[in-house]
């Protein structure tokens, strides 16, 4: 660190100690840039990874899985390299379609307290997973194919995202596929034993399930881009020691005191205008720090700043955080990409009232129940399912989707527990079910450092928005203020491995720029310190001055063509 008075000057300042920020800092240090500082608003690392421990076992309040356990997943490879996955990798494998959602074996219940039959449950899962796969594949099979067709017809300059497709609401598509499936089951004799009313109720309730996995109410999600975030094979992977262990391993390689907790960024000045001439070419990061004396300001100056501020924070604060203001193209990307909401609440009971391994309870809200839900009153109608928790036999996880999650995050623990146990009693038909004694949660929608969960493709989103959000300022050729985070990765947005790759991407961009600047500086230093070139052997010879041309000589030269030779001689050229 270079100190200028009380000012802190560094090569790189990284904002945020989540997956993207720590990955960026680690990659920089690993490649020789040791003057890196991470400023983190909270008192912990992880961002939307938050692992707590109950009786020595991890409980994930935030991101829980590595999505896609295969070598194409950078995070999976890292966890393997760090030997954090154990001798036998724990996978929620998606080969068996009947256990994709919910995540444990169990029953589907209706609000009348009756479970669906096994035949209806099996068929409902088959239909749901087929629709889900069609949604995931729509981008590649329909959207990209249409773009290639347009190029073949000579319309390559047309923006496929706006010209080739209307912006289809995912709910419209889902409901149409449900009706099609029910019509097929109705006329097919081999499904005569299947109760269509039960299947219809299950598929209605699965709207909440799909909302949880995609981040928002289905009528706010754009079908065409949902599958643009690539789904990797290999199932979902659990990290036995807790997801935060991946980041803890990386932090150990960072320089001492490079992590600064409790620093909430209140301003980023990338104008490169300072009264101090030594700071003219620096980016100024202003942080608020809570001390015993109250809130104080702490300033950092850096050649490069990597911002990993979550999309929710950017959407609410971009107008007052950045000076000068962000370009309109980046503001549009910030506002166009959706910021999702979901809530995962862990309920602790004195003892489990469910059979071990069969605690999965999925709620089949009917179309009628969902059609008339009103917020904030009916937030509980967004509860999708309950699942058992690995390593915690007394816990159930309650999953709440989208708009309901935003309301649930504002409620007190007692209000939450009262309503959730009422829902469980209603759907199981057992009014004697004991209530939970405690709950654990993180209110991502209301916490100032996040204001949401992961990104999603809302109706206003275009494919180019994710790329635009990742573009550095002031330009790609002069990257000084850089942006990382899962919402900046156009292939893996909404995932932990997308966040990691985005951090590494921006670290590489900084390294490339540092190399360019160092090469240029070395050349300038060489030019400044090199001795003057040796003069040629006849350098002491001087031509006698030419006599000034008389009018008669000039007229003669015009006749003979010697005016060309005369001009070259006057300007030092060769007459030969």
TrEMBL record:
InterPro entries: Amino_oxidase, FAD/NAD-bd_sf, Flavin_monoamine_oxidase. It comes from the Eukaryota. SUPFAM superfamilies: FAD-linked reductases, C-terminal domain, FAD/NAD(P)-binding domain. The chain crosses the membrane at residues 12-29. Residues 19-511 form the Amine oxidase domain. Residues 526-560 are annotated as: Disordered. This is Amine oxidase domain-containing protein. GO terms for molecular function: polyamine oxidase activity. Keywords: Membrane, Transmembrane, Transmembrane helix. Gene3D superfamilies: 3.90.660.10, FAD/NAD(P)-binding domain (3.50.50.60).
């Amino acid at each position: 660190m270079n100190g200028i008075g009380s000012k802190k000057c560094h090569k790189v300042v990284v904002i945020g100690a989540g997956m993207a920020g720590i990955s960026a800092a680690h990659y920089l240090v690993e490649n020789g840039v040791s003057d890196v500082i991470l400023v983190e608003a909270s008192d912990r690392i992880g961002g939307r990874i938050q692992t707590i421990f109950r009786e020595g076992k991890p409980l994930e309040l935030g991101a829980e899985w590595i999505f896609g356990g295969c070598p194409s997943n950078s995070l999976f490879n890292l966890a393997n390299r760090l030997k954090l996955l154990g001798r036998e990798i724990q996978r929620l494998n998606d080969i068996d379609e009947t256990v994709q959602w919910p995540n444990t074996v169990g029953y589907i219940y209706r609000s009348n307290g009756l479970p669906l039959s096994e035949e209806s449950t099996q068929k409902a899962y088959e239909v749901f997973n087929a629709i889900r796969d069609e949604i995931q594949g729509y981008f590649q099979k329909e959207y990209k194919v249409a773009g290639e067709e347009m190029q073949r017809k000579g319309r390559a300059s047309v923006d496929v995202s706006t010209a080739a497709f209307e912006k289809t609401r995912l709910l419209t598509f889902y409901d149409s596929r449900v009706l099609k499936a029910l019509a097929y089951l109705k006329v097919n004799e081999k499904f005569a034993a299947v109760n269509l009313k039960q299947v219809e109720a299950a598929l209605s309730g699965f709207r909440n399930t799909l909302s949880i996995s995609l981040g928002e109410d289905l009528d706010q999600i754009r079908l065409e881009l949902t599958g643009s975030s690539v789904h990797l094979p290999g199932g979902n992977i659990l990290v036995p020691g807790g997801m935060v262990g991946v980041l803890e391993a990386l932090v150990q390689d960072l320089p001492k005191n490079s992590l600064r907790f409790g620093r909430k960024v209140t301003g980023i000045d990338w104008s490169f205008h300072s009264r101090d001439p030594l700071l003219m070419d620096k980016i100024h990061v202003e942080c608020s720090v809570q001390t015993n004396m109250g809130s104080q300001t702490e300033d950092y100056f850096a050649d490069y700043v990597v911002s990993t501020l979550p999309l929710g924070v950017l959407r609410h604060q971009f107008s007052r955080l950045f000076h000068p203001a962000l370009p309109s193209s980046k503001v549009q990307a910030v506002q166009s990409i959706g910021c999702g909401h979901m809530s995962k609440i862990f309920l602790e009971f004195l003892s489990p009232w469910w059979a071990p391994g069969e605690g999965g309870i999925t709620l089949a809200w009917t179309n009628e129940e969902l059609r008339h839900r009103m917020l904030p009153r009916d937030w509980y109608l967004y509860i999708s399912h309950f699942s058992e928790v690995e390593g915690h036999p007394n816990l159930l996880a309650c999953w709440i989707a989208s708009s309901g999650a935003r309301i649930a995050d504002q409620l007190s623990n007692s209000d939450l527990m009262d309503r959730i146990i009422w829902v469980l009693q209603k759907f199981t038909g057992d009014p004697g079910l004991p209530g939970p004694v405690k709950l654990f949660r993180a209110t991502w929608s209301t916490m100032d450092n996040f204001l949401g969960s992961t990104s999603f493709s809302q109706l206003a989103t275009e494919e180019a928005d994710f790329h635009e959000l990742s573009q550095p300022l002031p330009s790609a050729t002069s990257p000084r203020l850089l942006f990382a985070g899962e919402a900046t990765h156009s292939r893996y947005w909404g995932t932990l491995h997308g966040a990691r790759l985005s951090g590494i991407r921006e670290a590489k961009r900084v390294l490339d720029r540092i190399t360019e600047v160092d090469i240029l500086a070395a050349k300038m230093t060489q030019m400044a310190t090199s001795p003057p070139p040796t003069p040629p052997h006849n350098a002491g010879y001087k031509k006698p001055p030419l006599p000034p041309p008389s009018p008669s000589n000039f007229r003669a030269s015009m006749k003979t063509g010697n005016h060309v030779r005369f001009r070259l001689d006057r300007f030092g050229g060769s007459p030969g």
